[in-house]
Amino acid sequence: MPNARPHIPRILLAFDFDRTLASDSINAICAAYGVDRSDWERDYEEPLGSHWDEIVRRGQALINMGHARDNPLSNAMFDEAADHIELFPGVMDMPDRLRSAVDAIADGIDLDFVVLSSGYDELISRTPVAQAFDRILASGFEGGDDGVMSCVKRVVGHPAKALYLEALGKGADVDGQNGPERAADYVGPDDMYVPFDQMIYLGDGLSDLQAFEFLHRVGGLTIAVAAGGSFDPGDITAPQRVDAAPPPD
User: Fold this and answer.
1) Is residue 113 pLDDT above 80, yes or no?
2) Cys-Cys crosslink for 223: which of 154, 156, 202, 232, Cβ 3.0 to 4.6 Å?
3) DSSP code, position 74
């Protein structure tokens, strides 16, 4: 009996960044300023109050810290902060190792490696991960001609990660002003960029629960990286439970 399912020889692996591939981004920016994370939270984040989007609030608190210290958050500061990012062992050669492993099993299967993060593109893209991965989808700032950041202009929030995964599988645009606005459009099995059950998402905590849930429901593989030796997201629904939770090494 012929197989009615289309053959799409592609696997997509999407990764959160902070504590999944590397150390914490906010800690790295604070270190570039010579400020303890707890002091930044007390002096710049907490005074902003509540009812903020978390990613926008953090970005504004970073901007405020830069102005207060007469050293605005800028491309130069992101260059310095990138030096404080520590990639987990094996991250840089992982794509080549996995591609070699897949090639040993079957010819002609493409592997796409994507960073899908609520963190800031201006920092992530300055780390070596940018050379090892195929694309980075992350939150971002608005910067002027002088390289100084004025505000957060793009937010990849926690629920949005599920939309990005859906759009990536369907091959929908994720780079437009309102991307991924066409994620819910119907795409037939023959026209998928990568079938959902050939997608893998790896994250480390609460910010990844919606992504875990979406991919679990559509047949993909979910992996929680247990940085620090354990993965404890608290109360979760059954679809948010992951398929595996290994340590990052």
Assistant:
1) yes
2) 202
3) B
